[in-house]
Amino acid sequence: MNSTSTGEAVLFWILAPITVFAALAIVASRKAVHSALWMAMVMVNLAMFFAVQAAPFLAVAQVVVYTGAVMMLFLFVLMLVGVDSSDSLVETLKGQRIAAVLAGLGFGILLIAGFANADVGGFVGLEAANNARGGNVEGLAELIFTRYVFAFEVVGALLITAALGAMVLAHREQIGQKLTQRERSIQRFKEGGIVTQLPPPGVYARSNAVDMPALLPDGTPSDLSVSTTLRERGDMRTPDEVVTPEELLAGEDVEESRTARPLGRGGTE
């Protein structure tokens, strides 16, 4: 029978209060995103506890499966449903509250039974159990697929049910009739405005920048080719503001050269 080392005791008294605080914050947080982040902290701390107790497989599985996969699933569901969406007060499934209460009571009874059967007489550790079966991973595999194979299958079915429930919660009913590509094209022409593709920016003969307007066939610049943000901020340049590399190398007066510079494929300034 072994005793708890100083390092384990220090790690426990540092991580245990943080874990309890994060668990309480999961319930007390008003936003679902904050609760998910607090839950991630709880899972990472549990992985550290597993690593200290000579259970490296459980520590890695806690981080990779629960913190990495399950938490990402929660966050994806929150992104699909919406952070600011309000919960519906209409009970769509009859008897779900009664079933939830019964499931909670059953889970509580299982926890109490597990704590009652726990041996708190002394710290034994997993070193002997790991050595008896050739390692931590081998010992867990033997127990999961022999003695606890039924519980393993039940947990797998529970995870599949949770995934289906997340898909149901993330589903949104379509509002209105879905338009086909032909109907969208007809609607765009009926509304008027610009029905063709906008000219891309940076096609001026002496520049290749997003703040330069494109030139129309008659040689006039098109402001619609530049981003609305640049136009609102006043960062859009005009063709006469472009200085060519040849002018910079030649050292000629830029202002004088702009007076007779051609504007592109049509006309002059």
Offer a quick outline of the entry:
This protein is mainly alpha-helical and 269 residues long. The protein contains eleven helices and two strands.
Report the uncertain regions. Answer: 257-269
Q: What's the β-strand tally?
A: 2
Name the overall outline: elongated
Summed up, the helix count is: 11
Main sheet: which strands, in order across? Answer: 1-2
Radius of gyration: 33 Å
Mean pLDDT: 76
* Order of helix and strand elements from N to C terminus: HHHHHHHHEEHHH
Beta-strand portion reads: under 5%
**Structural class by helix and strand composition:** mainly alpha
Main beta-sheet annotation: 2 strands, antiparallel
Termini, distance in Å?
94 Å
In helices, the fraction of residues equals 55-70%
Please tell me about this protein's structure.
α6 (136-147) crosses α7 (149-170). Residues 257-269 have low confidence and may be disordered. The longest helix has 26 residues, at 56-81. The chain has 269 residues and is mostly helical. It has eleven helices and two strands, in the order ααααααααββααα. The chain has a two-stranded antiparallel sheet. β1 (214-215) and β2 (221-222) form a beta hairpin. The chain has helices at residues 6-28, 32-52, 56-81, 96-116, 127-132, 136-147, 149-170, 181-191, 228-233, 245-250, 254-258; strands at 214-215, 221-222. The termini are far apart. 59% of the residues lie in helices and 1% in strands.
